[in-house]
Amino acid sequence: MSFYFLEATAFLKLFVQEPGTDTLIRRLETVEDNSKLISASTPLEVYAAIRRRERAGDIAPGDAVAALEVLRLESARTVQQPLNPAVLEAARQLIDRTSLRWPETLQLGAALTARDMFKGTAILFISSSPQLLEAARGEGLETLDPVKEEVPVH
Fold it and tell me: Among 10, 20, 27, 28, which residue's Cβ finds the most Cβ atoms within 10 Å?
């Protein structure tokens, strides 16, 4: 069994059209909901990103409302890694050994904690942050940047 850990920059692509959205949607079309993981902080991060884009005029108010509703539904269907003491400790350790910002360490810390919980299960860490992808690879996770992955032509 494999899990797909969607970091906030990737999860956002499911609700806002941007580079990598089509690739990510195609990649996840056949993935069961119980194989998709996010940090418990991800829905709030994505909510904030949608509202910021709405205030900046990049997203029409009606589109923002629709995106937020889909976010609510998709978040409820996706397995969420709680921000428990193990995740917070993993994030603290990442702060000590990387140059990641603390929200990024929460994301990666959640993925690492999930990997420890589901021993023997592959976790694909999906993000559009080059720094976060590099740190995830350094922690031994397989990574995917949906912006850089080619969409298969059928």
Answer: 10
Q: What is the pLDDT of residues 39-93, one digit of tens each?
A: 999 999 999 999 999 999 999 999 999 999 999 999 999 999 999 999 999 999 9
Amino acid at 95: I
Inter-residue contact 147 to 25 (CB < 8 Å): no
Tell me, yes or no, if the pTM score tops 0.70.
yes
Cα gap 15→113, rounded to integer Å? 26
Mean of pLDDT values over 111-122: 92
Classify residue 152 by its DSSP letter: P
Cα dist. 98→92, 117, 144 in Å? 10, 23, 20
Residue 5: closest CA among 135, 89, 84, 110: 110
Are residues 41 and 103 in contact, defined by beta-carbon separation less than 8 angstroms?
A: yes
Element spanning 22, H or E: helix 21-28
Enumerate domains of the chain plus CATH numbers. 2-144 (3.40.50.1010)
Nearest to 130 by CA among 112, 147, 111: 147
